[in-house]
């Protein structure tokens, strides 16, 4: 299932569509996938598109017998979530600014991640096994 999220879509609407797409998965997997989508939306709203103008992005969900793959795709400057998460966790807590732990949370809830930047598009693929 692929769906596009628009600037005026609420978090609850997006999580509702995601829940429907994940129907039939174990509850724990669904819950953790919803946290990942919620954190991704928070990052999009607060960091990537803080002025909400052209905030469209896509989410592709693929369910298999062993897990679910979520592919987030959006236009913008290159933003490697691995580098950003590393920058947050490489400093002592006293030297960290507020925020940035959402990427660490996403990483801890997933089993596999891939990032690529191609033709002005960020693509972050996250796999959750069960």
Can you offer a commentary on this structure?
It is a single chain. With 130 residues, this protein is α+β, with helices and mostly antiparallel strands. Helices cover 39% and strands 28% of the residues. It is built from 4 helices and 5 strands. The protein has a 5-stranded antiparallel β-sheet, with helices on one face. A hairpin with a 3-residue loop joins strand 2 (57-63) and strand 3 (67-75). It is globular, with a radius of gyration of 15 Å. The mean pLDDT is 86.
Order of helices and strands: EHHEEHHEE
Assess the beta-strand content as a share of residues. Answer: 25-35%
Q: Largest beta sheet: what is the strand line-up?
A: 1-2-3-5-4
> What is the rounded Rg?
15 Å
Question: What is this entry, summarized?
Answer:
This protein is of the alpha+beta class and 130 residues long. Helix content is 39%, strand content 28%.
Keywords:
130 residues; alpha+beta; 5-stranded antiparallel beta sheet; 4 helices; 39% helix; 28% strand; globular
Helix and strand arrangement:
Elements: E1 2-5, H1 11-21, H2 27-48, E2 57-63, E3 67-75, H3 81-89, H4 101-109, E4 112-118, E5 121-129
Helix pairs in contact: 1-2, 2-4
């Amino acid at each position: 299932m692929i769906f596009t999220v628009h600037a005026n879509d609420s978090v609850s609407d997006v999580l509702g569509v995601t829940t429907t797409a994940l129907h039939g998965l174990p509850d724990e997997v669904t819950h953790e996938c919803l946290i990942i989508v919620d954190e991704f939306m928070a990052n999009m709203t607060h960091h990537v598109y803080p002025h909400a103008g052209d905030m469209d992005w896509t989410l592709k969900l693929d369910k298999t017998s062993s897990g679910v793959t979520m592919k987030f795709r959006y236009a913008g400057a290159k933003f490697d979530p691995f580098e950003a998460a590393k920058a947050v966790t490489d400093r002592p807590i006293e030297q960290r600014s507020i925020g940035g732990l959402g990427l660490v949370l996403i990483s801890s809830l997933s089993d596999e991640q891939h990032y690529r930047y191609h033709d002005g598009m960020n693509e972050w693929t996250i796999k959750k096994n069960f």
